[in-house]
């Protein structure tokens, strides 16, 4: 199974400041079709997860542009350019290049 | 609008069985790959099972031989049959369409 490792596991951010979460996979997520199957989800308190970013850097429709994803191969990053109060929750990276799909441990983002 | 509504969770004794249902609207279940993902209380996300549009199904090693994923095209619904339940199966079970649409979840508690 592909192991996904996120750092840090928790983050306390002042509103308006940037935040960054790293996700590393134990194997390359680059598929032979040229796509890289790395997704980012946010689980807000008391809610089910919601997709933010797919294929490393593609924002789902409706996701604010303060969220951006980058990376390649085995190293990926989710950046929030200016954190807002509504961004609190747990962020998960996920690989779906192969079964079983696997998730990072999650990064809890809180507001200072 | 895509909607997924899970049901069927509850308190069950170890060794017991449950069938989870996911009622879908706004899209056709049989035309999509559908998954179940679970989350133990206070823990991260764990992929459980997937069924592809062609009918192929796959399972996490932790549930293989005990859980069965299926769908009813006439009801546009997804199911997960849980047998030989263990305490470690206690979790919120989410129905997921593709990689982007999640239901609100149904809670399964395995305890004597």
Name the shape of chain B in a single word. globular
Contiguous uncertain segments of 5+ residues of chain B: none
Uncertain regions spanning at least 5 consecutive residues of chain A: none
Count the E strands of chain A: 11
Mass-distribution shape of chain A: globular
Q: Please give the largest β-sheet of chain B.
A: 7 strands, mixed
Query: End-to-end distance of chain B, in Å?
Result: 40 Å
Largest β sheet strand count, sense and barrel closure of chain A: 7 strands, mixed
User: Largest protein interface?
Assistant: A-B, 21 and 17 residues
Proportion of residues in extended strands of chain B: over 45%
Structural class label of chain B: mainly beta
Question: What Rg of chain A, in angstroms, do the CA atoms define?
Answer: 13 Å
Summarize the helices and strands and which ones pair or pack.
The complex is a heterodimer of chains A (112) and B (112).
Chain A: E1 4-7, E2 10-13, E3 19-25, E4 38-43, E5 50-54, E6 58-59, E7 67-72, E8 75-80, E9 89-95, E10 102-103, E11 107-111
Chain B: E1 3-7, E2 10-12, E3 18-25, E4 34-39, E5 45-51, E6 57-59, E7 67-72, E8 77-82, E9 91-97, E10 101-102, E11 106-110
Parallel strand pairs in B: 2-11
Antiparallel strand pairs in B: 1-3, 3-8, 4-5, 4-9, 5-6, 7-8, 9-10, 9-11
How would you portray this structure in words?
- The complex is a heterodimer of chains A (112) and B (112).
- Chain A is an all-beta fold and 112 residues long.
- Chain A is built from no helices and eleven strands.
- In chain A, strands 2, 4, 5, 6, 9, 10 and 11 form a seven-stranded mixed beta sheet that branches. Chain A has a four-stranded antiparallel beta sheet with strand order 1-3-8-7, with no helix packed on it.
- Chain A starts with a strand and ends with a strand.
- The mean pLDDT of chain A is 97.
- Chain B has 112 residues and is mostly beta strands.
- Chain B has no helices and eleven strands.
- Chain B starts with a strand and ends with a strand.
- At the A-B interface, strand 4, strand 5 and strand 10 of A face strand 5 of B.
């Amino acid at each position: 199974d592909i192991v996904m490792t996120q750092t840090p596991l928790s983050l306390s951010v002042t509103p308006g400041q940037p935040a960054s979460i790293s996700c590393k996979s134990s194997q390359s997520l680059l598929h032979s079709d040229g796509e890289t199957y790395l997704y980012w989800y946010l689980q807000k308190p008391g809610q089910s997860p919601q997709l933010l970013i797919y294929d490393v850097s593609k924002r789902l429709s409706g996701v604010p542009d303060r969220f951006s994803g980058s990376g390649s191969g085995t190293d990926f990053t989710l950046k929030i350019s200016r954190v807002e109060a509504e961004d609190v929750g747990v962020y998960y990276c996920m690989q779906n290049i192969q079964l079983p799909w696997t998730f990072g441990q999650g990064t809890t983002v809180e507001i200072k | 609008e895509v909607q997924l509504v899970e049901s069927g969770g509850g308190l069950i004794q170890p060794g017991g069985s449950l069938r989870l249902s996911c009622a879908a609207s706004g899209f056709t279940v049989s035309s999509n790959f559908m998954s179940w993902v679970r989350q133990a209380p206070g823990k991260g996300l764990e992929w459980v099972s997937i069924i592809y549009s062609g009918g192929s199904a796959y399972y996490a090693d932790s549930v293989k031989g005990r859980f069965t994923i299926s769908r009813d095209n006439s009801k546009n619904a997804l199911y997960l049959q849980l047998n030989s339940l263990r305490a470690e199966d206690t979790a919120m079970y989410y129905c997921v369409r593709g990689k982007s649409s999640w239901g609100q979840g149904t809670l399964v508690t395995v305890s004597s």
